[in-house]
Every structure is written in C-alpha cells, then in structure tokens.
C-alpha cells in the first residue's frame, strides 16, 4: 500500500511540475451582475412602442442604444416600433427556448466572474465590465466580432451574451436547412451553453489586444493567433483546451497526437513564409478540415500550431509576463522558441 501511495504522490507532483502553477485569485474582488435584457425586451408593449422603448432606454441607458443600432441594425427612436414588432413575433420561439435553457444564469455568471478575476490578476489596470447582459439577437449574427465569434459582444461597461447562439448544438434551428446554410455543423457544434465564458473572455482578450496582421507571413500570423489563445488560457485555466480553439474533444485529441505531422506539413509545403491570402485563410480561417491532413482533421490548424509555438517559447522564458509576451514580435517568438515537436 505504501508503495502505491508513493507512486501516486510522485505522479501528482510530476503533473504539477509540468505546468505553471495556477495563481490563487479567490481574494480578487470583482463586482459584476447579470441583467436579462431579453426578458424586458420581449415584454415590450408594441401597441405603444414610443413609451415602451423610452422605458427600456431608461432601464438600459447604454446597452439599449447599442442593441438597436449594432445588433438589430435599426433606429432606436420611436419610429423603431414598426421594425421591432416583426422581430418580436418571429423570434418568440427562440426566446422561449432560451428562457427554458437559461432559467438560471448563475452558473455562467460564476464562470465569467472567475475569468475576470484572472484578468484583474494579470492586468490590474484594465477596467473590467460591471455587467453581463443577456439578449436575443438575429440568428444570422451580422454583428460578428473578431476571431469569428457570432453573437457575443462587449460594450463600454458590459459583456453581452447573445443567447440565440448558445442553445445547444442539437437545437432544432441549427439542424434545419436554413440553419445549416447559415452555420455549417463544424461551427454550430460550438453553440453550446458551455462556450459562454470562453466567448466572453475571448472578447476581453480582443479588447485588451486588438488583432493586427498587417500582411504578415503565415507563420507570424499563426504565432499571433497562438499568443491570443495562450492569453485566453491564462484567463480560463480550468477550461478544456478544445473549447478555447473551437474544436471537438476528438479533434483536439487528434491534433495533439499528430502535432509532429502537422508541423512537418507546414515545413514541407513551404507555406510558413507565404503572404498569399488564400493560403493563409486555408490554415487560420474557418473551415471544416485541413485538406492535406484528411477528413478527420480540424480546420484552423495554423492557430493550433501557433499556440504550441507560444507555449514552447513561454516554457523557455517563464519570467516573461503576459504583457511582455503580447508586445513581443511574432517573428522573435518563432525564432527563439525553436519549435520542433
């Protein structure tokens, strides 16, 4: 018994030493509350739209204007009643489904709050949002944010969660012909309640460091993607890695298992220094698979490889802060990492 106990202790200690210790953020104060905008919005009295919109504006002075103009794409004045009524009618079933699935939002608030504690730990001067605001937006999500996100937004003081794209990958609309035309299965697979905190913290990452590629070669863009994934992982250290990059569990498992083959593909096809937009999009854009790696492979494989490069770099340079990492030139990271799986 003692022998097996000692072996177990060694395994645990070894696993702890393999990665950086996660900091204790339990004492970092984060004040955030959740407001269910969609509930008030779907209660609007469309018979008296001017007064109804005025009252909503008073309750959500900042978000309501953003919602009308940026999410719905309409004028938020009293003339909006004619545009809002059809939306309320056609999205009633979506709203009802969201209310059933998210009758209690506390679990997701807790996950986001924990992520914000890590943001505050690493970036103490960053002004955190004070609210989480849930809403129902158009299913076509024409207000896409960076990194290919659909539906979730960040405003001056709030994290906005578009519940219409978190109803579960098997939600009926996502599986319909119209839904599949909007969102192929490899994208709608991410429309789970469990991705709410990931999307919220990814938007924080974007707010901290807006993405700029400036016609850089593929490998540098891969590393830039990797830096952002590394930062996101620091904000959500307890989240499964596959969620951070948008893979399925099996896709991520296979990517890890074939890390060497993935890197050899880039080296052998000579694409690392390419500035061809089509080649770059093929490796770091949205796609169901990576053509050269077969049908079972995930897309966006360049971001995966870039993430591993950044991890290697940080293993060699543990003293580097996240701020310094994000400010370090991608080519410097690539050259110094000497990544070779």
Average pLDDT, to the nearest integer? Answer: 88
Q: Give me the Rg, rounded.
A: 22 Å
Order of helices and strands: HEHHHHHHEEEHHHHHHHHHHHH
Share of residues in helices = 40-55%
Decide which structural class fits the backbone.
mainly alpha
Give the strand line-up of the largest sheet: 1-2-4-3
3D structure, described in words:
Helices cover 55% and strands 5% of the residues. With 341 residues, the protein is mainly α. The protein has a 4-stranded mixed sheet with strand order 1-2-4-3. Helix 7 (106-122) runs parallel beside helix 11 (196-208) and helix 12 (218-235) crosses helix 19 (330-337). Mean pLDDT is 88; it is low at 1-18 and 143-149.
Key terms:
single chain, 341 residues, mainly alpha, four-stranded mixed sheet, globular
List the helices and strands and how they pair.
Layout lengths: L1 H16 L15 E4 H5 L7 H11 L3 H10 L8 H10 L1 H10 L4 H17 L8 E5 L17 E2 L3 E5 L9 H4 L1 H6 L2 H4 L7 H13 L9 H18 L5 H5 L3 H9 L1 H11 L7 H8 L16 H16 L5 H6 L2 H8 L4
Parallel strand pairs: 1-2, 2-4
Antiparallel strand pairs: 3-4
Helix pairs in contact: 7-11, 11-12, 12-16, 12-17, 12-19, 17-19
């Amino acid at each position: 018994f003692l022998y097996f106990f000692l072996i177990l202790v060694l395994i645990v200690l070894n696993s702890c030493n393999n990665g950086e210790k996660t900091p204790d953020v339990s004492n970092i104060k984060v004040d955030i509350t959740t407001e269910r905008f969609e509930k008030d919005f779907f209660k609007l009295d469309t018979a008296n739209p001017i007064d109804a919109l005025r009252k909503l504006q008073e309750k959500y002075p900042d978000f309501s204007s953003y919602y009308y103009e940026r999410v719905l794409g309409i004028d938020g004045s009293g003339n909006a009643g004619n545009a809002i009524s059809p939306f309320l009618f056609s999205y009633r079933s979506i709203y009802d489904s969201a209310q059933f699935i998210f009758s209690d939002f506390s679990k997701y608030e807790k996950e986001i709050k924990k992520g914000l504690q890590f943001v505050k730990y690493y970036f103490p001067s960053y002004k955190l949002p004070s609210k989480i605001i849930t809403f129902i937006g158009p299913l076509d999500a024409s207000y896409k944010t960076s990194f290919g996100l659909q539906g979730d937004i960040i405003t001056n003081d709030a994290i906005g969660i578009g519940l219409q794209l978190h109803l579960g990958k098997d939600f009926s609309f996502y599986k319909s012909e119209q839904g599949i035309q909007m969102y192929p299965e490899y994208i709608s697979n991410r429309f789970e309640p469990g991705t709410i905190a990931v999307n919220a913290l990814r938007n924080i990452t974007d707010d901290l460091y807006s993405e700029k590629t400036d016609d850089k070669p593929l490998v540098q863009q891969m590393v830039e993607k990797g830096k952002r994934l590394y930062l996101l992982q620091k904000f959500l250290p307890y989240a499964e890695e596959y969620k951070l990059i948008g893979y399925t569990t099996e896709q991520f498992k296979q990517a890890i298992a074939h890390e060497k083959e993935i890197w050899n593909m880039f080296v052998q096809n000579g694409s690392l220094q390419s500035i061809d937009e089509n080649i770059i999009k093929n490796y770091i854009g949205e796609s169901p698979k990576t053509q050269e790696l077969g049908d079972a492979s995930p897309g966006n494989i360049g971001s995966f490889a870039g993430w591993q490069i950044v991890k290697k770099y940080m293993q060699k340079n543990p003293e580097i802060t996240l701020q310094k990492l994000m400010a370090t030139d991608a080519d410097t990271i690539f050259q110094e990492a000497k990544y070779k799986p």
